[in-house]
Amino acid sequence: MTQEIVMIPLNEKSTSEKTVILSEEQFWAISKIISSLKGKLNSRLVVFGDMDGQLISKDGEIPGLDITVFTALMAGDFSATKEIARIMGSKNEFKLHYHEGTHQHLYVAAVGGQFFLAVIFDPSVTLGMVRIFTKKTIEKINKIVEAQSTEEEQITQMIDSEFKSLVKNDLNKILG
Amino acid sequence: MFINWAKREISIKIVYYGPGLSGKTTNLEHIYSKIDPSHRGEMVSLKTKDDRTIFFDFMEFKLGQLQGKIPRFRLYTVPGQRFYASSRKIILSGADGIVFVADSQRSRLSENMGSLLDLEKNFIAERRTLADVPYVIQYNKRDLDQILPVGLLQKKLNFLNAPYFEAIANRGIGVADTLKMIIQLVIEDIERKLRAQSAVPKRDFK
């Protein structure tokens, strides 16, 4: 069976058979919306990632937090609860997670079947506010990604024999 | 595989699969120790109190800018013990390449075979098959006494004739070679897929 590659609208459910390609236009539009959400909620960090653990865009920093690892763990969290839903006999997956801490809370919502949005916020912000603004943000992200990319031709040519040889050389350098 | 064209990043997921205690985490730990911190993030290991992987180990590293593009590699291990079947299924999702870490010990042959069958079963559940995924076998623990000859392991485990390496992961032997090979296979696979994609008529999403 050959694997399918698509320039996907990000709200379309993607399976592991697909390759996800995010265009320049889509990336910057999503990043702008994420920054806006961060501002509205006075959030410390907003992360947009995919369910396979790939960090796509973020705004904010938390000292000592490796955001790549955070994204991988969030994806794992979603996958684990998906499995929990399945063994509970639930027809639908859990669409959001909320973890309440002492000094900061974490709200994570699914964006379509393939992505998620995570918000770390201060206890002074109400959960209701986070819910409302996150929901609106997800709607906006879904709209943005409906547009088709115009960069497909460039992207499909991105790997050539020179690139492969450069990868090989660089790997030899860093791995010995 | 994920391409972020705005950042010119190509991100690849490689999963280390195999039975419990075959050396998957040891592979990652060695890679982590070899790579300069400027090229990698933290390594995270979700372990039980007995130091066994319960969910996954994870690390990411990147290369420099190559033709203006940055390849990033996300490495995962699965928990090998039989009862973590759900975890393995989850982690396998979206894998671009597989390293199967086999334990060379005679007493572990059936565990290796069981793990391989489990791997293929999980791929089939995703409507994929191991035969279509870049895949490398590593015969680990070659320094132990009660090990099977590589020829026999090849016959029993390598039915797809995948590239293979002998390794002693806790001394770092064979670890880098295995990783380099799987990355090379994945990159070639992606090139094939992208070229095939450019040859098909464009799809209208509207």
Q: What is the helix tally of chain A?
A: 5
Major protein interface: A-B, 61 and 66 residues
Q: Termini separation of chain B (Å)?
A: 24 Å
Beta-strand percent range of chain A = 15-25%
What is the total domain count of chain B?
Answer: 1
Distance between the termini of chain A: 36 Å
Rounded radius of gyration of chain B (Å): 17 Å
Helix content of chain A: 40-55%
The SSE string of chain A, one letter per element, is EEHEEHEEEHHH
Order of helices and strands of chain B: EEHEEEHEHEHEH
Strand order of the largest sheet of chain A: 4-3-7-6-5
Could you say which overall geometry of chain B the principal axes of the C-alpha atoms support?
Answer: globular
Walkthrough of the structure:
The complex is a heterodimer of chains A (176) and B (206). Chain A is α+β, with helices and mostly antiparallel strands. Chain A has a single domain, classed as 2-Layer Sandwich (Beta-Lactamase), CATH 3.30.450. Helix content of chain A is 44%, strand content 22%. Chain A contains 5 helices and 7 strands. Chain A has a 5-stranded antiparallel β-sheet, sandwiched between helices. In chain A, helix 1 runs antiparallel to helix 3. Chain B has 206 residues and is an alpha/beta fold. Chain B has one domain: Rossmann fold (3-Layer(aba) Sandwich), CATH 3.40.50.300. In chain B, strands 1, 2, 3, 4, 5, 6, 7 and 8 form an 8-stranded mixed β-sheet that branches. The longest helix of chain B is centred in the last third of the chain and has 25 residues. At the A-B interface, strand 2, helix 1, helix 2, helix 4 and helix 5 of A face strand 1, strand 2, strand 4, strand 5 and helix 2 of B. Strand 2 of chain A pairs parallel with strand 1 of chain B, so a sheet runs across the interface.
Topology:
The complex is a heterodimer of chains A (176) and B (206).
Chain A: E1 4-6, E2 18-22, H1 24-41, E3 45-50, E4 55-60, H2 67-87, E5 96-100, E6 105-111, E7 115-121, H3 127-144, H4 152-156, H5 161-175
Parallel strand pairs in A: 1-2
Antiparallel strand pairs in A: 3-4, 3-7, 5-6, 6-7
Helix pairs in contact in A: 1-3
Chain B: E1 2-4, E2 9-17, H1 24-34, E3 44-47, E4 53-62, E5 70-77, H2 85-92, E6 97-103, H3 109-125, E7 135-140, H4 150-157, E8 164-166, H5 175-199
Parallel strand pairs in B: 2-5, 2-6, 6-7, 7-8
Antiparallel strand pairs in B: 1-2, 3-4, 4-5
